[in-house]
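Could someone model EPU with this protein?
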Amino acid sequence: MDKFFIHGGAHLRGTVSISGSKNSSLPILAATLLTRERCVIHRVPDLSDIRYMLEILRYLGADVSFSAGTVTVEARKVGWEAPYDLVRRMRASVCVLGPILARCGRSKVSLPGGCVIGDRPIDLHLRGLEALGTRITLSKGYVVAETSALTGTRLSLRGPHGSTVLGTDNVMMAACLARGTTIIEDAALEPEVADLARFLRAMGARIHGEGTGCLEIEGVEELHGAEHTVISDRIEAGTFAVAAAIVRGEILLENAPSEHMGSIIEALRQAGASVEEEKNGLRVQAGDPLRPFRLRTGTYPGFPTDMQAQFCALAVTVPGRSEIADEVFPNRFMHISELKRMGAHIDLRGNVAVIDGIPRLSGAPVMASDLRASAALVLAGLQAENTTTVSRVYHIDRGYERIDAKLRAVGANIERRP
Ligand code: EPU
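Reply:
Sure, complex below.
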């Protein structure tokens, strides 16, 4: 298992090129199962989560190749069972449920299981598929879904914490091949869902209303092959923006999707960082003193839960009291205890982190627990005195393409060692 050794205090300056979005690519790859024809997807980031998804597609019978950011999938035949050993590695694999069901009339997918960011039920996915005429049974850790004919209907995907991203994806993909029209109310507004809708449309699906909260999907007999380029990763861009702010440096985020980053840009400005749009991307620049800030995560266009941990790391370095609440995943605070080991003053009150900033963190050995928490520890290490070692780096490799190389290129002193 690799570790990162970060010698903090280096000034960061330069350009980072933002990769294609992980959370767009995963459901788009699952959607290729909806057709027997060839699909070609460009700008797919080379991440371990993407490799897991490609393994699942191969297991299900698809021919898959991945080279220089382009994935080609041809699923002439599709198996209907995704076993525990494959699904347990990545929660997003649950988004093969809808496509397999639509293509085969039945689907057996292992329940994704626990996750350190909190309880992650899939009741809304199942409720939506049931509304389309699917019989769902849970047996021995598996979801078994069967239908004689998916049938369009009106349904809502509203849950206790708002809508569901992958649940909207699953139901939208199944509805593409249903008889008649499906209306999904309280659909997720995230740009990654809209990107999937664009890909499905390129495959021949009839979808309207993505990004409005109400999706209308007219079912078609079959879908065909298509080519698509994935949008830029707003969370990767946000993470590098925080890297610039935390060391009071300056980074140009090339290809950053500024149109999807409104709440992140607003949060950076609230903290006193400068964010300017340029022809090639976003320039983020920060100097002392930054200001304390208050944030509350929410579904899009609210502030993303996937940026909560990174802004906790930033708040730790800003004099005064900041408050950050997570309303989407109220238990997603695994980074707090590790940040405290680096000297941070954080009091967790329910789902609110109350943070009293200090001038400089102190380097320490810390352990990555999940993707975004790990990113927060790397960011903290960039600012800390002395050396921070981050172990279990495989969590970061799930969602950031060569984060160490990209940080080194803008001046960070970070090494990866086995
Ligand atoms: N929820 C339910 N029932 C469901 C599904 C979700 O109650 O059936 C609740 C969840 O417990 C949570 C909220 O609804 O409180 C939102 O969860 P959502 O279903 O939207 O999450 P997801 O689709 O499983 C995606 C991203 C996550 C991101 C969330 C929220 C992918 C592959 N994953 O997960 O990304 O945090 O949306 O925006 O798109 C990450 O990239 O680090 C990551 C965890």
